[in-house]
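Recall from the previous chapter that SMILES is a line notation for molecules. Here it describes magnesium ion.
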Amino acid sequence: MNIGYDLDGVIFKFGEAFNKYLLDKYNHTIDITKITEYSDLIRLIEGFNKDAMHDFLDGDEGHLLDAQPYEDAVGIINKRFNEGHNIYFITARHNEDIAIESLKRNGFSYTDIYFMHADSKYEVIKDLDLDFYIEDRLETLISIHEKGIKLIPVIRDQPWNRKSHPINFVRVKSLTDFDRLIEKILEIRREVD
Ligand SMILES: [Mg+2]
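With both inputs in hand, we obtain:
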């Protein structure tokens, strides 16, 4: 199978990394649970310091080396990779070296990584012929849906992606739950074969 994973908010603890950055640089933190959509995050940060979000997202991303993966991430992804599945990371980060170093430090095995603007991710997702893609940004999944790309899009539950929308994406609370879904589909395919 071809399985695609977003990095921040899916593999890496984005909210925690952001708060650590704010604490180190501005001696300030925000309540991540109050953020109900992605634009809230930007508004909240800009209300406190208009450069902070820009620095965090558009700076050199060196601080993202400190981002910790979710506890289940390495085990689950490496298991699927070792079984022979293709593992693709698709991220809107722009510092390729930092992202690759983060994955290496944390011991991730993967097939390839793609760096795409969040609104253009669907292009590579289509080309890779993914079976599954997991993402925390609702707008990205909506763009995949609107392009009619055939795959199972899964949203990784986060405070900033819970606003109601007409499309019922499969929502999971963890990568462990996402992997259970993959296992179910594998079982069905084995039965059909
Ligand atoms: Mg993300």
